[in-house]
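ugh finaly. both done.
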Amino acid sequence: MRPSTSFSITNKPDTSSTRQKPDTGSGFSPDKPRHHTRFTHSRVACQACRGQINVGCHVVVREGLSVGDHTLFGEGVSIHDDNHVAGRGPEPIASRGFEARPITIGANVWVGAKAVILPGVRIGDNAVVGAGAVVTRDVPACTVVAGVPARIIREI
């Protein structure tokens, strides 16, 4: 059995959810490491996972991103593991900080062009994410999802 060569990006290991707020001293800092990668000029063969990241992909990681072997990302895919804290109240959204949750993408997944993957999502092995889909919930293994928000279209 060959060992997995999947890759991951993390700032804090074993963190399932973090709410960071600048005015409470919770550890938020504009200087906190934030992996921000944009692939704009050419396809990138991901040697670590034997997959492919296509042109125009945008990856923002505060907490963690894990990607399995042989996963393909179409052009313009956007992956964000953080989002602004929203809610009622007089406090401006910009001063509420961020909520970040790691993203896990399984092995042999195909993410179609311009799909968006949002915080805390887990995508199972052998899944397909349709072009332009917005993934807000977990995607079971061996399924095809599409739409806004992404919904299961069929099993494969």
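ok and the 2nd:
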Amino acid sequence: MRKIDAANDRLMAQAVGEIEKEEGVLVIKRIHVRLHLKAPAADRETAERVHDMYRDRCPVYRSLRAAIAITTELFFEPLPESPVAARGVSAK
């Protein structure tokens, strides 16, 4: 997500699919994805903006959207501010 650190389990996704039977065949009709992001509070606006616009650039979404209803939601969990960042010193 736009230069937001997603390593070390900071970004997790859970997808739930809904299946219906059509003419005796199971078909995926809907997928709902819950994204859980842990990041500094200062990154919330960027994360929400990226979440709102990612669909247009996501090859999976663009490939499936005509056949499957796909929805997402972003749960943002602010990380505690580090003492170094609080003093305005960049960590290297």
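summary for the 2nd one i guess: Strands lie at 11-22, 25-40, 69-79.
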